[in-house]
Amino acid sequence: NSMKLTGTLVGSVRSMAKIGDDGERGGDTFVAVSDYGEIAVLVPQREDGGQAARYNTTTIFSDCKCVFRDVCTDPSGACYALDITGKLVRRHVTTPQMATPPLQLPQGRWEHLLRRSDGKLVAVAHDKVAWVDGKTMTVAAAVEVEDGIAEAGLLDDELLLFCNSGRMIDFKGYERQASLPVTMPKGEVVTAFGYMADKGWLVLGTGTGPIYIYDRSGKLLSSLHGHTGRITHLEPASWMLVSSSYDHTVRLWDMRDITSLVTPVNITYDRWPLCFVTDERRHTIRVGMEGGDIRSVNVSAEGNALSTQKNITRDFSSDEWEYYI
Asked: CA 181, CA 122: separation in Å to the nearest integer?
């Protein structure tokens, strides 16, 4: 059950993040950034069948010279958007008019922005990493990485870098520690990273479509096959793993028993799904698309049944009951 949200962006939606971790706004309100220099806040307008179906969209920053690649938020309601040239823009959701001057990071092609539990931000370019104090908007440290970085993620606040060479580097603090004991299949490059903390699993999406699952010791536990294009985003949601790909699909994988053949639920779109945020409380996924669309997907069987029931104006025939129910 997928619907297009109102107030789409002009540029492609490159990243989204929830605003706040709990409370009344947690999970409902989120921020999205585009490659046309837009930062937009989407606030639920009304309730419909247990899910936030209508949103008011407010653009709190717009500069078409910026090409935003990633965004993160903090519990205070501040959001940080990273431009591909290294410009880091900070805006507060409730008071966007109180602008903070942007921080310009060292020259490079910047792609990823992560937030540690201590509030420090980690910006990652193709060949370097910078640690940033988000409150003072200053660079605490920066290091060069020779291998070329394809993807980055946090594992219990440790920075993981997935290099084009196949190496996976683990940082503790500002110093490089060691290579992770993970061996990817030959020729595979990691393009998306997810961590299932309750199981201790590292989930690695690739440029060709397969998704590999490792434990923290580097043992390959399973592989998920079905995507036929580059994986753009991975995120666990309860017992599911959600993945998006350039093959125009978002897939929901049942992770309760990875030893058996996993057949995902596929949601197909007419364009690339580039990112998403999950809302477990409402069983909803918000998907950011190429071209600026944001789609809302209800993945609850019970929620979809109730929504369907409200729209039925007559009883099913026996054949319809057998087919649909």
From this structure: 23
